[in-house]
Design a protein that fits this description.
The structure is a single chain. This protein is 0% helix and 49% strand. The strands form 2 sheets. Strands 2, 4, 5, 6, 9, 10 and 11 form a 7-stranded mixed sheet that branches.
């Protein structure tokens, strides 16, 4: 199993930046693809970004492309989501997830609890 813990959320003004971290337990983190998802109040969960197990393949939602960057360091059992040029519509609970197969969106095997990101206008 993989346990995931997110951190780095907070309140930021529009145009600002945040870096979310996803710390994983277990020695098998390097075997899993990682995805970031977000859910705003009253809305369905949406895919944000994904990275494959070795970090050589990434994919982004159109709404964040060019502003967000997903990365990982398997030696540190950690993945990150660097968020720049934040907009009020980016406000949501952000969760990281791990999956045995690289996929864009959809269901993942393991999920973290999420971290709140609030962007003020």
């Amino acid at each position: 199993q993989v346990q995931l813990v997110e951190s780095g959320g907070g309140l930021v003004q529009a145009g600002g930046s945040l870096r979310l971290s996803c710390a994983a337990s277990g020695r098998t983190f390097r075997s899993y693809a990682v995805g970031w998802f977000r859910q705003a109040p009253g809305k369905e969960r949406e895919f944000v970004a994904a990275i494959n197990a070795y970090g050589g393949l990434t994919h982004y939602a159109d709404s964040v492309k060019g502003r967000f960057t997903i990365s990982r360091d398997n030696a540190k059992n950690t993945a990150w989501l660097q968020m720049n040029s934040l907009k009020p519509e980016d406000t949501a609970v952000y969760s990281c997830a791990a999956n045995t197969l690289y996929r864009v969106g959809g269901e993942y095997d393991y999920w973290g609890q999420g971290t709140q990101v609030t962007v003020s206008s």
